[in-house]
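Field reference: sequence -> structure
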Amino acid sequence: MIIEVIASLLFVLTVYVVSTLWENRNLPPGPFPLPVLGNLLSVGFKQPYRDLANMTKKYGKLFRIQMGSRKVIVINSYDIAREALVAKAEDFAGRPHHFFGSIFGRNSTDLAFQTFSQRWITQHKIALTALRLAEDKANVASHVNELCDKFHSTKGNPFCPQDLVFRSCGNCQSSLVFGHENKLDDWEVDALIKAGQILAKSIAAANLIDTFPILKYFPFEAIKKARRAGEVRDEIFKRKFEEHVSTFQSDNMRDLIDAMLKGFRENSGGLLTEEHLISSASDVFFPGTETPSVVIIWLIFYAIKYPDVQARLHSQLDDVIGNTNRLPQLSDKRNLPYLDAFIGEVMRVVSETPLAAPHSTTRETSLAGFLIPRDTTVFINLWAIHHDSDRWEDPFCFRPERFLDEQGRLRLEGIMPFSSGKRSCPGESFARRTVFLYAARLLYGFQFESPPGAILPDEDDSEYGILLECKPFEVCAVARRNGNQPIHKKEP
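Structure field:
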């Protein structure tokens, strides 16, 4: 009896090994998967982007892993990512099923988690057009100035900047999406910020549920929180959307929702419903609040950590703006290349979205010479791309000047913090301008320091959701100016 059992097990194991080798024969190299688990034991949940990056030493910049029964292709190279996302954009423009994405994506009516289709193309086009029409409604400068006023009110005493920055960016997005007439109340902004933070943490835990779908039937607290957050979000957005519908005038674009309504009524071709518009507005608000907030906090962090960099930023800002009785403007951007390089280096080193939202192939295709079947899940490891020693000299060293040429001109190449191609962040242009203006005015107005005796948190201990957030820290914002005038004379 025992011999028969052993023989049966050996037969099953042999069949499994042979069939697995046969299925993977044309795919990129990768570790051999265990039955049921696949390669889950090789990829942790705390810093999966680092675990995947470390696997390149053995398997190369393009490899495969298996999450349960799901095959995943992992891209860890800028050139290979460009081949997939740009040169073969439609081939890699799909989205795999995502459990928490289905909750926050309002049953796949959103842009972020909905897979590639003609409906998605139409919805994406309307959203991009609406963003261009409405971006001036955000009045970013006024929100930056309000944040600077709050920093001034601390009078150089220690405070934690996270909540203030998130609230400021949330109010900025409220102006963009809902307009001045329908702008959110403070409690609504706070509720949506909290919902976005729950989304970020939920997505980080989603791989296990997407790998073993039966787990979605278990009463995990993360699932309950995600559903409650989705309900809060839906109530606010649906109510605000209905207010817009009842007061809509095609010749008066008040905000993003108005611009989306106009595009929907003129160009939807019957493919979209109002649910798609509500989801699109949500897709603008949440990343538009979360990503700039996280980046701005990291900018303050690195300004404190590297005071010589902060001093050079102050020097360039003073040279360009000087005592002109004005604040930095977006038009100053071309004259502030070191500030742009600083922002780029923060985005590279941190890689605030270390693993971009997963892609999937829409048809059988190829990548770097390997055959990739249809419906294959694809991870773009942006953290690995931004720390690739074959592309970056001293990739773990913080050096903004790596993005400047010999003449000091900006050369921002090799990074893709907003991904690239058809599935890149639709709000990238607005987000870049927003982050620049916040950075310019905050650094023009303040010198950031750690409180006496305080130690900045370790970057390697950051909190990973879909975004990589710095752990809370205190800062002293020492005013450099009284209004627009310098408090201290410029150092020689």
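Note: The radius of gyration is 24 Å.
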